Amino acid sequence: MSVQASDSAAVARAPGLTAVSRGFADPLGRIGFALVLLLLLAAVFADVISAYEPTKMLPRDRFLGPSYEHLLGTDQLGRDLFSRMIHGGRVALMVAFPAIGISLALGIFFGLASGYAPKWLDNALLLVFDAIRSFPTVMLALALATIIGPSLQTVVLVVILFSAPAYARIIRTQTLALRNAEFVLASVATGASIWRVLGVHILPNIIGPILILVSMDLPVVITTEAGMSFLGLGVRPPTPSWGSILNDGYAFIRESPWLAIAGGLPIIITTIGFTFLGESLRDAYDPKLRKDG
Amino acid sequence: MTSVLSVGNLAVEFAAPYGPLQALRNVSLEVGSGEIVGIVGESGCGKSTLLNAILGLLPANGRIARGQITLSGTDLLGLSDRALNSVRGDRMSVVFQDPMTTLNPVLSIGRQMTDILYRLPLSAADKQARIAAMLARVGIPDPLQRIGQYPHELSGGMRQRVAIAMAMLVEPELLIADEPTTALDATLEIQIVRLLKELQRNTGCSILFISHHLGLIAELCDSVAVMYAGEIVERGSVRDIFHRPAHPYTQSLLECDPARIDEPTSRLPTIPGDVPNLLAIPAGCIFADRCPYAFASCTVKPAQRLVANGHTAACHLLTATPAHDTAAVGS
Amino acid sequence: MTPLLSVRDLKIRYQVRGALAAALTGESAEIEAVSGVSFDVARGETFAIVGESGSGKTTLARTIAGLVRSHSGSVLFEGQELTRRRPAELKEMRRQMAIIFQDPVGSLSPRLRVRSILAEPFRVHGLAGKAMPRQIDRLLDLVGLPKEIAGRYPHQLSGGQARRINVARAIALEPKLLIADEPTAGLDVSVQGEILNLLNELRERLGISMLIITHNLHVVRHIAGRMVIMYLGRIVEAGPTARLFSAPRHPYTAALLSASPRPDPDAMLQRLEISGEIPSLFRRPTGCEFHTRCPFVREKCRFEPPTLTVAGPGEFFTCHFPLT
Fold it and tell me: Residue A254 sits in a domain of what CATH number?
């Protein structure tokens, strides 16, 4: 049985938009979206929201608990934890977005190339991907930090080196699956260039699930940054990053628990937010659930 | 003639976002003992829904709004899930269209066929003997060797024969075949149809054969029901339907079949228009908007009219007295 | 008059295992899907290639359309050799030759609306301009579809509508040859006629030659003037459609003809039944490749491959003991 094709015309929307709108019908998706939005707004308006500069030290007010002046208290140098947390969000996004963005771009380029290319090129690229991915993350991070020094850029580079081959592999598999699809062949038969085939026909049909994966990768990146900063391989003090705050929290846990909270809590919230959002989008995107035609 | 399957005034609805979708409306059908009944219809006619309703396999948003389905007197709709399970695969079995998805790719043929016999208290050796015999009967060479093989080692035609063997292994009263040959080549199709005919003759089971291939229906079936957009528009013996079609849809359908047209022509007949939207069923005859003979009365739903003994059609053009709705199909 | 399309001794092979695996297992690395096929298609005619699964007909169609590389042999289109050309060189030829695939909805890009799908041929060849919307309307009109359909997505189309969109896209640049792979597959009987009528009409109105690939003999009778029958990658019989239907020479042709039952319970034809199934391409039978299933098989057939017997212009068969 089937609803007639003609009445689906009444709801002629782009398949992608339908997925997004359905994503928001799911309550967890809404929570995820709200949290992500919160993160983004907080990062953008960090200066407006925080009462203090994150690096301003008030030596007499060290290890204070939460109060009206200091919403989350202060750290070992008397810096306002709330402001540091908010600005840490900015750092997190400044790592996450470029890192993921570049990884995705590289992943798409090499994934498409590998999936559509003749076998020898595919094999060569696979060799490169797998070689990079076989390195243990921490070792690579350490090595890089030693060579170019710890910084935000180092973190971005590490993320790119690990994410790009992973995305490339996924995109390669999707490309391989679609390569002989009749609508792709039809386009080739019309005389379309390889760029047109890849860009107009293959990429839009595989990017949906990739983007959802990416949205769920964002918290992983943020955690990577936090981990690297925790190990001293990432952003240098006094720049606040959730990882470095967490690092301080670990060192000064007996003096005040609030440092650890200021570092750990935003990581938890961000991870939950992106995960809910990503999963909800993925469920909405699944064509098998698309019963309304 | 005793009836093996009896479907009476069946109505099936699906809950859709836009409202209830009436996939089947007032469908009545009988399959007698030892009879081969064909259901002909094109896409969207509801044959799959009918099949699923009989088997109790309607999806979650489907429900049986009205009607009865009985199998040799057992009311199928009143059965609990467990009881229905014991009927399926024992008293009635199914052969589906795609043998690739009917067979479990990770289990050997023999293992799958042994699993089906779980109800029988036979020894493993006895079961294997039965399985080998059945495989031989459906025309599979070297059956003992095949028992250990996996589906991917067999060709499409072989797999469908195995599927038929599996369905017949339980000695069902009713075998339901849902487009069993659609995925096969023409030369294989007739082999399978011949096989079904032979098996039916030897075991005396009844067969419900669903297809859109008119030629196969004509070859295999004793009686035929023609479905259109969720209704049965005509029923009768195979000769009634093919030689004396009474409903305009049946007539048009037969006219359109290129196999029926002897002279090569560059203008083949078609049925203009589309199947009606099942969310907004028209009040009158379901075929009126595409019928070449539609007239004023067609705004009222026609009842099943008697054309001849055992031959009924739902059309106002037939001025005979209305037939009993439970008229048995077949001569 | 030179034929529009000329295929000569075309062979197409697929690699099925790596060279190393082949060397180790002793089995061949390639299978030959098409083994030396030759035929001509004249201007303005409709030519049919008939075969069941495993016959190689789809592979043949795709090779002619330039989508699959051939191993040897030639494909001449308007006198120009198409094989051994790099894809970039074929672009101009692609304007003249269009192909329609088997799955009507699957041949349309799922994320594009119908109007973008129809605009593609124009865009690819740099012919898109302000007149695009009008050209699209014209195409839709040619295939008998309403203008509103231009805004729909492929999953919102019925099988028949999608099939017409495929035809519209194929004729967009007014090709000389249209290759249709199973044009009626998956269509209900009541709409099959629509597509066949459309193809016939386009041939008459626009003078497009057609190459129809199908397994449905009844369809062939109404649309093609000449045909070839393929089995395991070879042509077993070729000739005018009327002749093959009335007096087939090759047993396989006769078997195919009788394998499609007529919708008439009393038409018990003298059925020529063939047993078994298509042999695997990995283990091709010796001698005449049809001998494993032929009801008239004799000793000679098992060992000696039959030679091509020409019975007339464009009419030939390969059988030691033809039926007529």
Answer: 1.10.3720.10
